[in-house]
Amino acid sequence: MRFYSSCLVVLGCVVVLPCCFGFRTKQGNISEQIRNRIGAADVRARGFVDRERIHASDELASFYECRGYRPAWSSDIGLLARADSLVRAIREADREGLRPDDYHLAALEAAKGEIESNRGDKGSSPASRLADLDIMLTDAFATYASHLAHGKVDPETLRPSWVPVQRGLDYDKILEGALSSGKVRESLRALLPSHPSYSDLRQLLMSFEILARKGGWKAIPNGPTMKRNDRGKRVIALRIRLAASADLASARPNSVEIFDSSLENALRRFQKRHGLEVNGIADSATIAELNVPVEKRIEQIKANMERWRWLPRDLGHRYIQVNVSDGMLALVENGREVMRMKIVFGIKDWPTPLFSSEMTHVIFNPA
């Protein structure tokens, strides 16, 4: 029986092998398919693969040419584990305030599903589909890496006075390192800003998005200024609002209608964070900021995360940080704020220039 069983296996191989051989001869191998698309400038000329716009066509051409058009994410038998690792990383792009579909997520998942289904049915996948997916994965990595390292938006297109910090990154080297080490997600995360402020924004984004899915917060009704010892339904509304943004630690914010010290301190925290006068009084300016919808706050957080991606990764052990929105300057040494002062900033028609540079001297009281 064992011999008979072995014969069956051999016969099975004899039957299957010609089919696989004929299939691959018809489709060609993956490297040839990639060469046809990249080497013949097909991708650069059309700008699309599988109806997906390719963003890094020049980088793709350089990358694949250097590796002899060998696939980066697949082999003759299908996708490699590193492809799944990249797709998982792209799914998490929204945690950085970026859109996963900007990196072909839907198309990648659809193509992966199709290829895996074909592999289960036939034992192989068409080389043309694997080549398309390989190119899309490489484009996704290059584009996502660029956005993490430098930002998605060129700051000079928003305000010409901004002087961006250009960091020369060898994306071919980064990608090859990720492929050889198998640490695709880690290689991408290494490009992110390491400053604590960026991490704080990421955490705030996650909490606000959860809050948005629950309906956000309700606006505080218009009315007179509220201050310490005031009572009423608007005080309860203020308490609920500050609890929603975690400025007020209260398990039952709607159970107390008096404006007490805990509410005053919570309001001061909110005012300080939003560049308002820190007086613990719910005046019209403070109420207006409190009533900004959570969806707009989310967009502001994403914009600030993008600004952090424009900045140098290493600010040095001593640096000056100017926050134009709240009109304050902070001197930071060894990660600790040692000085803080007000600044004079511009107006709409004469805005404050935004830049990052090395400071060599300071002029006091210029004549």
Structure commentary:
With 367 residues, the chain is mostly helical. Helix 2 crosses helix 7 (127-150), helix 5 (81-91) crosses helix 7 (127-150) and helix 11 runs antiparallel to helix 15. The protein has helices spanning 2-27, 30-39, 42-46, 57-66, 81-91, 105-122, 127-150, 155-158, 171-181, 184-189, 196-213, 233-244, 261-273, 284-290, 294-310, and strands at 48-49, 52-53, 74-75, 78-79, 318-323, 328-333, 336-342. 52% of the residues lie in helices and 7% in strands. The strands form three sheets. Strands 5-6-7 form a three-stranded antiparallel beta sheet, with no helix packed on it. Strands 1-2 form a two-stranded antiparallel sheet. It folds into three domains: 23-192, no CATH class; 217-292, Muramoyl-pentapeptide Carboxypeptidase, domain 1; 315-367, no CATH class. The chain is built from 15 helices and seven strands.
What's the gyration radius in Å? 28 Å
Sheet with most strands: 3 strands, antiparallel
- What topology, given as strand order, has the largest sheet? 5-6-7
Low-confidence stretches: 1-28
Share in helix: 40-55%
**Computed structural class:** mainly alpha
Number of strands: 7
How many domains, as an integer?
3
Averaged pLDDT: 83
Distance between the terminal alpha carbons, to the nearest Å?
Answer: 103 Å
- The helix/strand order is HHHEEHEEHHHHHHHHHHHEEE
Global outline: elongated
Helices, by number, come to 15
Strand share of the residues? Answer: 5-15%
